[in-house]
UniProtKB/TrEMBL annotation:
It is found in: Cytoplasm. It catalyses: 2-(N(omega)-L-arginino)succinate = fumarate + L-arginine. GO terms for molecular function: argininosuccinate lyase activity. Its main location: cytoplasm. This is Argininosuccinate lyase. It comes from Egicoccus halophilus. Signal peptide: none annotated. GO terms for biological process: L-arginine biosynthetic process via ornithine. Its EC number is 4.3.2.1.
Amino acid sequence: DAGRLWGGRFTTGPDEAAWRLGVSTAFDRALWRQDLAGSRAHAAELHRIGVLDADELARMLDALDRCAALFVRDAFPFLPTDEDVHGAIERWLVEDLGPLGGKLRAGRSRNDQIANDLRLWCRDACDELVSLVAALQAALADQAEAHLDWLAPGYTHVQRGQPVLLSHHLLAYVWMLDRDAGRLRDARERLDASVLGSGALAGTTLGLDPAAYAEHLGFARVTENSMDAVASRDFALEVLSACAILAVHLSRLGEEVVLWATSEFGFATVGDAFSTGSSIMPQKRNPDVAELVRGKAGRVVGALVSLLTTVKGLPMAYDRDLQEDKEPVFDAVGTLRLVLPAMTGTVASLTFDRQRLAAASVGGFALATDLAEELVRRGVPFREAHEVVGEVVRRAESHGVDLDGLDPRELAAAHPALDTEVAALLDPRRAVDRRDSSLGTATASVRAQLARAREAVAVN
Ligand code: ARG
């Protein structure tokens, strides 16, 4: 029972079913590195307050190093009687050091230990995810740069709306992802506080210094309240929120790749290495990777909802429900670790079809807004211009032509201001390049936007 950190006050050990419910080594072993870092800091604090002498500190740190070496080789000997990673490590230390191993628990609790471990883990996870996001942003920016003046249809409601540059469309995702990176950085910044010294919930009588732990573990500051420190998981919820929003953005991009790759759209081909075949239909070239990116978003959103639901209704301070915090966090981050590089590769592998994109960019009366805005420029109130052009569209539709196929006389009949000069505006390239404000789709604007995007990616 050495892997269980309690027992003295009980006459029997735990029931088998109760034990199986509570054991967490299967998943919390992932925190070994953080747990050992916390233990090193704690050993140093115990030395400072005189609980460990210099020799004991040296032997303790040495044992912690040997313990780490076992984990690195995936050879740490977990026992079925170990309740959690903290209990397993203490049991191992006692086997290794004798009674000295039992000194490390003074002044701390698994309640502050686990909060510390998960904060450290989340801190690294945020850094890692931000750099994976940056790689995807770079792949999108590369594609934007490689297709800088290519026309594409811009959609609302998946109905053609106005022509855009393909690069403008791709860069939209770079900015979405940039806010995702920002959210991860914000979450990291807020969770960067040390909880050790909180003990079970109230602090300790031993004179342990919270600031010393923060210093040792590289936390930016200490938490202000020991009860908040052991009870709160909003730091993990913020990481999960950032993960969920990111996963949803990736899902939207995945959905677009799926659409672009259909023969109906035919805008892009996914590279061989990111496509899959069919076990029965020899001709198939399926965008499974993009579909999985879309599908995996569900479990990341689920992880957020799961932890929100766990935390809701918990009274102060620590409650064992909080043990349910780890798996959603590990799963969400682990999922994004898979998804982000796969999406980066998929984006880099895309081959776009210039002809089909250009043809689609003009279809569906996509220049109707340009016509209406030209009328505005000629003094017509927009309300009237909208009606007039709507009628022009209706006429063109009844002849089975687009706006540029309409007889100029019919344009003029709709409104005297619709002269031949206006008809010359019915060109997607002109339509794109006239939208030349900083956020618009004009080639010069998009070139400047691309430069700003590159700068934003560089700091991620
Ligand atoms: N394994 C627990 C967790 O993950 C920490 C143990 C705290 N248990 C307790 N009975 N105080 O949150």
